[in-house]
Design goal:
- This protein starts with a strand and ends in a 10-residue tail after the last helix.
- 39% of the residues are buried.
- Helix 2 runs antiparallel to helix 4 (139-147) and helix 12 packs across helix 14.
- It contains 14 helices and eleven strands.
- The strands form five sheets. Strands 4-3-5 form a three-stranded mixed β-sheet. The chain has a two-stranded antiparallel sheet with strand order 1-11.
- 42% of the residues lie in helices and 7% in strands.
Length: 460
């Protein structure tokens, strides 16, 4: 079932002790300590409690907005926020913290302000209301409102509108950079692909030269590649069609800009926009299914070409043999040895597998079908892997009359898609027209069997 990317409370905040671009120190502090410091620097502990709570909600939401939008990292900086009130909010290193402010922060640090229907932390702009004024909250104005008997939420509504809400019990976890670590490219299938598809489509509303991605499903198909190339061309980036770190953060920056995510008038981010298709919880012993079968396949191929690792049977069950293979892999590649598949372990396995598949010499497989190339083949692609797929399907179609024999052109067009559909239906696979690991493996298996071949000492 698809999940939703909810903002989280970061364990720490990195603060730049000066304006952006200045040669000032960065310091990293626990999130709760940061909020206590800013609140003790921005407001007075003698104010009514309702005023204090309203201001602290604004302080929390402000910094969460900066972190959620990656406002500074997307501009090339290595910090989350500055301590300059011209840009952000006050932070004074090593200052004393007021006890009543500390108690309130401990109570509400995992709550933040949103627009109704949105999950994005609202950009809760504020100013002191005396020497400076703004469209957001007046800090001194909260005092008179509290003295009139308004609750913290009513004070927030007074400044930010009746359509706001408070999200509570936000999980606390470590937050790193959002860039996945390796470039996204044609054939990739991941939550990160879904994110850039959503963002590119929204940017395309303001920049119609960016072609629309018809289905935001997490599959990096030809239409996604075309949208990436158009984005890169418009914004003077190398026109590669892949999403490297520079392109990833440029997309983030312009997405935040067109949606005004760092402004009080933000469109917000809906649950639908933040829905992602792939499991993020990891893989664990006892699990069964195609994800486990794919994991075992990758580990088995890697182990065949790395004698330090051990081959395992592809059963689709996360059994003891799989646990040991995962532990051996983690040990060899310097990862925490848990026997479970977290994001770092999966990304490393996938990278090693794809690098292995790409480095194999031409003709290594003899008369057998090649191993899965490590990415999803879909309509619109044109390359040698498509040509190999067509070769296998065409041969299978000469035996199974239901499967149309297709020309071997290297272009994945409607004929190839229909042949894939038919194969998937005949062999009990999910009917998608896409060729991922399971479909490729089953096509290769059938092709080898019909030719009297098998994978022999490849162990698969």
């Amino acid at each position: 079932m698809p999940t939703v990317i909810q903002p989280v409370i970061p364990e720490t905040v990195t603060v730049h002790l000066g304006p952006p671009g200045s040669n000032a120190q960065n310091i990293t502090v626990p999130f709760v300590d940061y909020i206590k410091n800013v609140a003790s620097s921005e407001i007075y502990p003698t104010w009514p409690e309702s005023a204090l709570r309203a201001n602290i909600y604004a302080i929390i939401s402000f910094v969460l907005n900066r972190i959620y939008t990656e406002w500074y990292p997307s501009r090339g900086y290595d910090f989350d926020i500055t301590n300059t009130t011209q840009y952000d909010q006050a932070f004074v290193p090593d200052r004393d913290i007021f006890q009543n402010i500390s108690d309130i922060v401990d109570d509400i640090f995992d709550e933040y302000v949103v627009r109704q229907g949105s999950i994005q932390p609202l950009f809760t702009a504020f100013c002191n209301g005396t020497t400076s004024t703004c469209k957001g909250m007046s800090q001194w104005g909260t005092v008179s409102l509290a003295e009139q008997g308004l609750t913290p939420f009513e004070i927030l509504q007074y400044y930010y509108g009746d359509d706001i809400g408070i999200l509570t019990d936000t999980p606390v976890m470590s937050v790193g950079e959002s860039y996945p670590g390796t470039p996204l490219r044609l054939g990739d299938a991941s939550n990160e692909v879904k994110i850039i598809q959503t963002e590119l489509n929204r940017i395309g509303e303001n920049y119609p030269a960016i072609p629309k991605i018809q289905v935001e499903n997490g599959l990096f198909g030809s239409d996604t590649e075309a949208a990436v190339r158009a984005f890169q061309q418009i914004f003077s980036l190398p026109e590669t069609g892949t999403v490297d770190k520079a392109t990833w953060y440029a997309i983030k920056r312009y997405y935040s800009g067109v949606k005004q995510l760092a402004e009080l008038t933000s469109e917000g981010v809906t649950i639908e926009e933040a829905t992602i298709p792939y499991n993020q919880t990891g893989l664990f012993p006892g699990m069964q299914g195609d994800e486990i079968r794919t994991l075992q396949y990758y580990l088995d191929i890697i182990a065949y070409f790395n004698p330090a690792l051990s081959l395992i049977p592809i059963t689709g069950v996360y059994d003891e043999a799989t646990v040991q293979a995962v532990e051996n892999f983690q040990r060899f590649y310097g990862l925490p040895i848990t026997g479970n598949i977290d994001e770092d372990t999966w990304n490393t396995i996938f990278k090693i597998y794809r690098d292995t598949a790409a480095s194999l010499p031409e003709g290594y497989e003899g008369n057998r079908a090649k191993i899965y190339p490590g990415y999803v083949l879909s309509e619109g692609m044109r390359n040698d892997d498509v040509k190999d797929l067509q070769t296998y399907l065409s041969y299978i179609g000469s035996i199974y009359p239901e499967i149309p024999e297709i020309p071997v052109t290297g272009y994945f067009g409607p004929q190839t898609r229909d042949a894939v559909y038919t194969f998937q239906r005949l062999f009990g696979l999910p009917i998608s027209g896409l060729v991922g690991h399971s479909t490729w493996y089953r096509i290769a298996e059938e092709y080898n069997a019909l030719r009297g071949e098998d994978y022999g000492d490849l162990g698969i």
